[in-house]
């Protein structure tokens, strides 16, 4: 795993300095609020294993490892370049407490059967699977940065393929967590199918009176519970301020989880 030569990097603090992330500057997908909200969906007492599918530089998976001391995290990413940034993050002295609990797997999330197992993603191995799949469709303006385009470009059947993999590598009763655009809700529910039940969906709104910009989704492997829409999250209480609401700020900085209701 090697990073591209001549690319500027940043070392960014998350969770108020509880972990640090090496990221390319002006290239690839840069982690932010989405990754932190995704990580907040994981709430688990005791030891557990988590896979972060399409992990990029590893922000969401590292956020889980930083908040939950007994989490064993596997970052799964097909881009060797982005996985190399995750490796650089794990080598930082500031991440010494979490690095021993994080593994890296270079693999395409859409692999199936023996190819997936050979890549290091065995069946029934993880208690939690998290994902922040590419979210742009063909009508969105494409970025000239190929690495960023790969991270953002949606292809047909994407949720079906990624959720199929999540179902295969997760133990019965394990939790799937993802963040996506609201327009993907029907495809996500369809992809969960009979693999996952107890789907809980939380819309995320910038402010009251505005349209949702994201949805947070959790589901349980093998559950037959019904779908539920939860109360929305408002990112900003004050219509004139860009400051996060207290609850969202806590989620963004790893001070609390956003547990399931069911």
TrEMBL record:
Keyword annotations for this protein? Answer: Methyltransferase, S-adenosyl-L-methionine, Transferase
EC identifiers of the protein: 2.1.1.223
Gene Ontology process terms (BP): methylation
| Root EC class | transferase
What the entry lists under SUPFAM superfamilies is as follows: S-adenosyl-L-methionine-dependent methyltransferases
Question: From the UniProt record, which GO molecular function terms apply?
Answer: methyltransferase activity
Q: Specify the Methyltransferase small domain's residue ranges.
A: 36-182
What PANTHER family does its record include?
A: TRNA1(VAL) (ADENINE(37)-N6)-METHYLTRANSFERASE
**Name of the molecule in the record:** tRNA1(Val) (Adenine(37)-N6)-methyltransferase
